[in-house]
Amino acid sequence: MATTPLTNWAGNVAFSAERLGIPESISELRAAVAGAGRVRVLGTGHSFSDIADTPDTLISLRHLPETFEVTGPGTVRVAAGITLADLAVQLHRSGLALHNLPSLPHISLAGACATATHGSGDGNGSLAGAVRSMEVVAADGSLTTVSRGDAAFDGAVVALGALGVVTHLELDVVPAFDVEQRVYEGLPWPVLTDRLDEVFAAAYSVSVFTDWRSRGGDSVALWVKHRVGDPAADLAWTGARPAEGPRHPIPAMPPENCTQQLGVPGPWHERLPHFRAEFTPSAGEELQSEFFVPRHEARNALLALDGLRARIAPVLQISELRSIAADPYWLSPHYQRPNIAFHFTWIPDADAVRPVVRRIEEALAPWDVRPHWGKVFTLPPAALAASYPRWSAFRRLMRDSDPLSTFQNPFLEGLFG
Known about the structure:
The protein has helices at about 25-35, 85-95, 110-115, 155, 190-195, 195-200, 300-305, 310, 350-365, 380-385, 390-400, 410-415; strands at about 20, 40, 55-60, 70, 75-80, 95, 130-135, 145, 165-170, 175, 180-185, 205-210, 220-225, 240, 265, 285-295, 315-325, 340-345, 370. The chain is an alpha+beta fold.
């Protein structure tokens, strides 16, 4: 055990843990969990909420043995603490791929799955959708496996770290594929609001970026990721024009740390993220929020946010819209519904950002808004419980799995009591 002050990547959360444990084997991890009072796992620290904080013991999995095993046709078993970037390289060497990746490949696999983190694409669910089974260290140090088809599985995959320490994941994977990425600028606002479904159906993965400052000019851009071999994406009908050179999501930023654009084909893991694995995309000088509404309410949600431009723009760096397929996981924001996501990268000023976040939540409330668990939100537990049909079932699962509240922390206690 080591004692050290820690913050998250953005610096807006100072962890209160007395100890940081960095076990080098599964047996050391089991002993550390069994001997601790309260335990949370620290991944790559990319959450902007205090979801990973604890007053007692943080455990990092970064020194556990590496694991990568092809266990069958279309399945692999990997160490849970691996980053998506490192996993992607090993998968690609084996001729395999994940179905999708988020904008940052720097985050850990287990953390991404536990929070239903996602990329974009009408047919693409969150990374949690790839999970076939999980090996978990329980509060008493025992090692258990939860598999697809088990009664608790749909509650255990997106569990916010509340059920134990995930050590290994077995994943569904697909054959490796190539992707072409193009950026289009100057998308007319009426095209986005009136033909949003067609915009997002144009390619394997589509993201829309806007600064919410204007409805005209170059304030709306499309990042289009076309899977090589699929029908070619034709965006001419939108009125947007192809970018003349590489772009960064934030127009004032240099594009060198972004993945290859201009339609140059490349491996899936070098195109689906917005940012290159070998670069840190920024110094962490930002806050982030993300909110999900049902896909069929996307136009209403867009129009509601359109009325908040004057509130949003002064504290915003950039906003991204994405589409995500439905999944069956009880605490996933995508539980039983395809979503449209409204992502906000804010300036690093929590006092200025918080009231704007609250206003966005109020504006989206009529459409059953759900937040990303690892980002900044203010929605009260009662509103969240009303939005998740299996909320009470998860609370029971959490109490049955962890009767001594070993994996509880202020974040979870604030949600579930």
